[in-house]
Amino acid sequence: METVEAELEEGLISHQPILSSLNQTGERIIGQLSAPDSSLLEEKLEGLNHRWRSVHREVRERQRRLAGGDPALAELARRSDELALWLEQAECAARSLSVVGMATDKNLKELKALAEEMDAQNERLIWLNKNGPHILASKSVSLQERDQHMTRLRAINMNWSNVTRDLLDKVGEVEACLQGQGQFQDRMNRLTDWVVLTHQSLCMRTPGSLSPSEHQVLEMSLRERKRDLEELLSRSIELQRQQLLLPQEKIKVEQLAADWKALDVAVKEVAQHPVSSWTHQVAQQQLSVSAVPSAVQMASLMSGRTSGTTPPAAPTWWPPPT
To answer: Which stretches does UniProt call biased (Pro residues) (predicted)?
Structure first.
């Protein structure tokens, strides 16, 4: 009889990693399928997990009945089963929730909720580690039973450490990803606002109405913003290559590039009839450096379809027209 129980126990232990692997692979595939295929696979996976839990429960009930009615050993087995099953589910949940590069606030909330639940489950682990060795030291527990339960307890502790580390890593990854997305979008929005406002202000000026000093201030502003634009375009191309550029971000980048081109045209139009030959020379030098980014960058971005900088301020390089 003990041989049969040992074989059942070994079968559960050896097949549990296989089930975990199937769950992880299945979750990944489900996320890539469209309905109704994803629903069908999800239903089959849930059926497999339901059957596994039923077999697992039957084996544990059988072991408790054969334990001779030892309530302490039965309680140890029950708590071990519950925590082992929860750890398996938590591991699968953490892996399915972490979407590197495409994280969302929902991912972060779900991961943090799982971390909070893990804090609550820690009480179960404390109970097992505190009471397990004392229960198994009883003379009524056979050597084979003691070895089985101690092996299981060690496996639970090891799995707990792995799941805890993985969960904290996933939370950190998602937080970093969301922070990077926020910084990228914030820089793009700020630069877009500056370009649009500057373009609108230039459109209100007549050709040749900018003074030499206004041209110089404009030139400095354009140099600074052009560096921002090139960094944003380079980052966009990199994200697009990695298939991590969100559709709404792609649209915003394309619109920003178009707005910059419109600004460049407006600058040239305002400088068409400079007030003096010296102003004309300054304007030509300035326009040569304020051109839009290279065609190679733009072609890469349109066809594929870093560090923070000082937030752009509203243009103050000329007085409002009177």
So the answer is: 312-322
